[in-house]
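Whether sequence alone determines local backbone shape is best considered at the level of individual chains. The sequence in question and its structure tokens are set out directly beneath this paragraph.

***
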Amino acid sequence: MPDSDTAGWRRRERPLRLERRLEFADYEQTRVFLEHSESLSEKTAIYPNMSFGRTYVNLTLFADEGEQDIAPAVRAFAERVDALAGADRVSVP
């Protein structure tokens, strides 16, 4: 699932994490995505590191300290982020 480059998420080591960059057509789409991802974080208590500009958002989801793999809840969060982004509104460079 998100460990695969083809799914848009990249697994990185030291520290163990998943990373993804989402690109949007305009600021309005970026803003809507950020608002929805905020709601998702509040519901799941998973808060990714995020940086963004007018037409992009970079996300990083870290594994819990000392864990050897990404937790199922974090993987589920990544899947929900993908659904929020919507394939028709987002490109993955």
About this structure: The beta strands are 10-12, 17-24, 49-53, 56-62, 90-91. Residues 5-91 form a domain with the Gyrase A; domain 2 fold (CATH 3.30.1360.20).
